[in-house]
Automatic annotation (TrEMBL):
Protein name from the UniProt record: monodehydroascorbate reductase (NADH)
Record flagged with keyword Transmembrane helix: no
Species annotation: Volvox africanus
InterPro entries: FAD-oxidoreductase/Apoptosis, FAD/NAD-bd_sf, FAD/NAD-binding_dom, FAD/NAD-linked_Rdtase_dimer_sf, MDHAR3-like_C
Gene3D superfamilies (alphabetical): 3.30.390.30, FAD/NAD(P)-binding domain (3.50.50.60)
Enzyme type, top EC level: oxidoreductase
Cofactors: FAD
TM region positions: none
Pfam families linked: MDHAR3-like_C (PF21791), Pyr_redox_2 (PF07992)
Length: 438
C-alpha cells in the first residue's frame, strides 16, 4: 500500500497553495501526495468564469500560484520537489480510523496526516426536480471540463445565432453573462432577487452594474424563478420561468448556464468528522475533530469573528483568498510551526466586462450604507457599511488600484470610526481620507 506522511485530498485551488507553503517551510521529498479526480494540477479556478470564456486563460498559463503573485506550478514543479501528484484519481472511500483512502481504481493509500480540500460543487436544478433540468445544453461551471464544454457551446451558438440564458444573479451568473455577451451572444439573465448580487450589492451599487449589462444588450429578468426546461432530441431549446405574480413565461434558449450556488463535498466524511455550516468543522489551526486530519478551503467551517459584533461563529467562505490562506495555515500546523489562530477578514472580488470590484468585511442589513464616488460614469465609486458608532464594517470599491484595496482592507480591519456625512467626494478622495486615518 503506497504510504505518505501527508496526503492532500482534492487537487483544487487550495492544494497548490498548500504545496507551496509546505515547500517554503521545510517539506522533504517523498512526504506529500496530492490526490485529485481532475486531470490537471491545481489551477486558479476563478479564471474559469472570466478570462477562460474569452479565450484568454488556458492551462498551463493559470496554474497556481500565479493568481496569488507566486510561481506558476506546472506538473514539473511538483515532481521537482518530490511531491506525488495523482491526477485522475477519485477517492471513493475515506477510512479515517485506519488512515486510508480508497481510489476508484481500488488502490488504497495510507497517510499520517490528511488535509481535506475537496471544495464544493454547483447546486444542480435536477436536485430540486425542475422539469427538463437533465437536458443537454444546460451547463454548470466548476472545473476546466465544464469550462471547455461551455466554450464549445458558445462557439456553436455564435455560428447559429443562438440565444443564451443564464440562471442566477450572483457573481457566477454575472460573470458568465458578461462572458457570453462579450462573445457576441444574445443573453438573458434570470434571477429571483430584486437586483443583481442581492447578497452584497445595495440597490444603488446594483443599479450601476445593471446599466452596464443593459448597455451591453443583456436582458435582465428580475424576481423570477425558473420552473422548467423544454427541449427536443435531449437538448434544451426553451426555459419557462415564473414571475413575481405567478405568471409563467416561455423563452427560447439554445444554451443555458446555471449558477445558483454551491455545496461542499463532505459526503466521504459524514459520520466520521464533526460538521458545521454545511462543511467540516475545524479550529484555528484548520484541524478537524479527528487528530491528524485537517480541512481547508471551501469545505472548511472555521471560527470566523464578525467584524461588526466580534462574535465568533463557524462559517464557510467560498472564496479564493480564504482557500489560499487556510491551506498555508494547515501546512504550517502539520509541520509543527504552531501558527497563531487563523484570523480571516472576508474578501470578495469580481470582474465583469471592463469593471472590477473588491469588497472587505461584512454587509449587515442594519448598517448605514454610505455611497461615494462617480456612480454615473461607473468609474471609481464605492460604498462603506457603517455599524455601531460609525465603525467601518464593510468596504466596497469599483475601479480602484491594488493600493486602494489595501486601504479599504485596513479601514475594515482597523474598524475606523467615521460619520456618514464626512464620506464625500470622488472615489480617490474617499480612499485618501481613509488612508489618512489609518
Ligand atoms: C467559476 C468560478 C469562479 C470563481 N470566481 C471567484 C472569484 O472571482 N473570487 C473568489 O474569491 N472566488 C472565486 N471562486 C471561488 C474559488 O474558486 C474557490 O473558493 C476555490 O476554488 C476553493 O478552493 P478549494 O481548493 O477549497 O476547492 P476547489 O478548487 O473546488 O478544489 C477541490 C478539488 O477537489 C477535487 N475533489 C473533490 N472530491 C474529490 C474526491 N472524492 N476525490 C478526488 N478529488 C476530489 C475536485 O475535483 C477539485 O479539484 C470561483 C469559483 C468558480 C467555480
Amino acid at each position: 500500500m503506497p504510504s505518505y506522511k501527508i496526503i492532500f485530498l482534492g487537487g483544487g485551488n487550495a492544494a497548490g497553495y498548500a504545496a507551496r507553503a509546505f515547500v517554503e517551510n521545510g517539506l522533504n521529498a517523498g512526504e506529500l501526495a496530492i490526490v485529485t479526480e481532475e486531470p490537471y494540477c491545481a489551477y486558479e479556478r476563478p479564471a474559469l468564469s472570466k478570462g477562460y470564456l474569452l479565450g484568454a486563460a488556458r492551462l498551463p498559463g493559470f496554474h497556481t500560484c500565479v493568481g496569488g503573485g507566486g510561481e506558476r506550478q506546472a506538473p514539473e514543479w511538483y515532481s521537482g520537489k518530490g511531491i506525488a501528484y495523482l491526477t485522475n484519481s477519485r477517492v471513493i472511500k475515506a477510512d479515517l480510523a485506519k488512515k486510508a483512502l480508497t481510489l476508484e481504481s481500488g488502490e488504497v493509500l495510507s497517510y499520517e496526516h490528511l488535509i481535506i480540500g475537496t471544495g464544493a460543487r454547483p447546486i444542480r436544478l435536477t436536485e430540486s426536480a425542475v422539469p427538463g433540468a437533465n437536458l443537454g445544453g444546460i451547463h454548470y461551471l466548476r472545473d476546466v471540463k465544464d469550462a471547455d464544454a461551455l466554450v464549445a457551446a458558445i462557439a456553436v451558438a455564435k455560428e447559429t445565432g443562438g440565444k443564451a440564458i443564464v440562471v442566477g444573479g450572483g457573481y457566477i451568473g454575472m460573470e458568465v453573462a458578461a462572458g457570453l455577451a462579450s462573445n457576441g451572444l444574445t443573453v438573458t439573465l434570470i434571477f429571483p432577487g430584486s437586483h443583481l448580487l442581492s447578497r452584497l450589492f445595495t440597490p444603488e451599487l446594483a443599479a450601476v452594474y445593471e446599466r452596464l449589462y443593459d448597455a451591453k444588450g443583456v436582458k435582465m429578468v428580475k424576481g423570477a424563478k425558473v420552473v422548467g426546461f423544454g427541449g427536443a432530441d435531449g437538448k434544451v431549446s426553451s426555459v419557462d420561468y415564473k414571475d413575481a405574480t405567478g405568471a409563467v413565461h416561455h423563452l427560447e434558449a439554445s444554451l443555458v448556464v446555471v449558477g445558483v450556488g454551491a455545496q461542499a463535498n463532505v459526503e466521504l466524511f459524514k459520520g466520521q468528522l464533526e460538521m458545521a455550516a454545511g462543511g467540516i468543522k475545524v479550529d484555528g489551526q484548520m484541524a478537524t475533530s479527528v487528530p491528524g486530519v485537517f480541512a481547508v478551503g471551501d469545505v472548511a467551517a472555521f471560527p470566523l469573528a464578525s467584524v461588526a459584533t466580534g462574535q465568533v461563529s463557524l462559517a464557510r467562505q467560498e472564496h479564493v483568498t480564504h482557500c489560499r490562506l487556510s491551506a498555508a495555515q494547515a501546512a504550517k500546523a502539520i509541520l509543527g510551526l504552531s501558527p497563531p489562530p487563523y484570523d480571516y477578514l472576508p474578501y470578495f472580488y469580481s470582474r465583469v466586462f471592463a469593471l472590477s470590484w473588491v469588497f472587505y468585511g461584512e454587509a449587515p442589513a442594519k448598517a448605514a450604507k454610505v455611497h461615494f464616488g462617480d456612480m454615473t460614469e461607473a468609474k471609481c465609486f464605492g460604498c462603506l457599511w457603517l455599524g455601531t458608532g460609525g465603525k467601518v464594517v464593510g468596504a466596497f470599491l469599483e475601479g480602484g488600484s491594488a493600493d486602494d484595496a489595501v486601504v479599504l482592507k485596513g479601514a475594515v480591519a482597523k474598524g475606523l470610526l467615521l460619520s456618514a456625512e464626512a464620506v464625500t467626494g470622488s472615489g480617490a478622495a474617499v480612499v485618501a481620507q481613509l488612508k489618512a486615518k489609518l
